[in-house]
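Session log. Operator J.P. requested a structure for one protein chain; no other inputs attached. Running the standard single-chain path with token output.
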Amino acid sequence: MRTLFIHQNFPGQFRHVVQALLEDPAQEVVGLGMVDNVRAAADYAPPRLVKAGYKVQPPPAEGSRIHPYLGDVDTGVRRGQAVARAILELKKRGWVPDRIVVHPGWGEGLFVKDILPDVPVLGYFEFFYRSRGADVDFDPEYPASLDNILRLRLRNAQHLIALEAFEAGVCPTAWQRSVFPDAFKPKLAVIHEGIDTELLRPDPDAAVVLGGEEYRAGDETVTYVGRNLEPYRGFHVFMRALPELLARRPRARVVIIGGDDVSYGQRLPRGESYRQRLLAELGDRLDLSRVRFTGRLPYDQFIRTLQVSAAHVYLTYPFVLSWSMLEAMACGCVVVGSATPPVQEVIRHGENGLLTDFFDRDRLVDTVCQALTDLDRARFLRAAARRTVVEHYDLRTRCLPQFLGHLETALPVR
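Structure written below.
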């Protein structure tokens, strides 16, 4: 069986399923991604995996006649063309897949069915943008412009083309599936990528040194994680809550993990970051001697930081659910999460975590303080949080078998 995986940042969400397939000698796998990203992922090299790269043609020069709304579409078409050429090159070498798994979000899947019309394709569908009822109209502090709202129609074009052409798809959560058009939902199964609960587990003796300062399990350490520190993940709400939180909990220290770029939402003028803006806004009201910004951490340090956490804050717009929330739960964190649909799918208030209104800073402070003071309740929530992830999101016993099984049933080889 030959399987082609396509992801601009290969392996991306396909890391574990690729490794699992290659444990079977009868399986052949090729991973296709942007050439620079494939090179950067040199540490990901399961035995017998063949990696291939594609190059995207540069965009048109500034001042060209392309409409501003078409920027994402133009880039997607260029990616799709590059993938088509790469598949044709594989065919020239005598390698034709029996099935294809692709993340279509950046345009890679646009033309695969034109190059290989008889090969079944499964798409990994993360999110379908809407101008109302999800992320775009959620935060009044960062309203979307009319241009951005209109551009969403075209941003979804790549997904719509893929949904029409592909045989099947998966979404990582039920809420993420719910934002896709009803007409295509029968094609979409809900299968999460999975959390390695053997690696991510509680450690009552955990300790980590960050910036020369030691943090140990049992300390009043409040943690916050985002790939980047930005409003989509509630960074502005969390930062504005810190002065009151630190005043009420004089022994508490805060660890903030994440970069200064922007993954989602509005970008700031060149050279500015949301961290800089919030620090300038808060000024001397924030005791920076008790707040540690780590940037992005190596994964082992990231895990140890979760293991020492006394309360982990996870806030998000109605958008893609972060792995980090489930990773924190697997490590036995008391998660204080926003009462938004992606979080509410997993966390039930008072049963396996605590929920608070995304915008209510006072309630956020109160809830974090509860997590730090009611230690009996915290122990109950920690155990329940981990149990939730083990039972529903465990990589090896749940998600990986589900994905592999779905791959076999949804993409019958012709």
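Operator note: Residues 2-194+395-410 form a domain with the Rossmann fold fold (CATH 3.40.50.2000).
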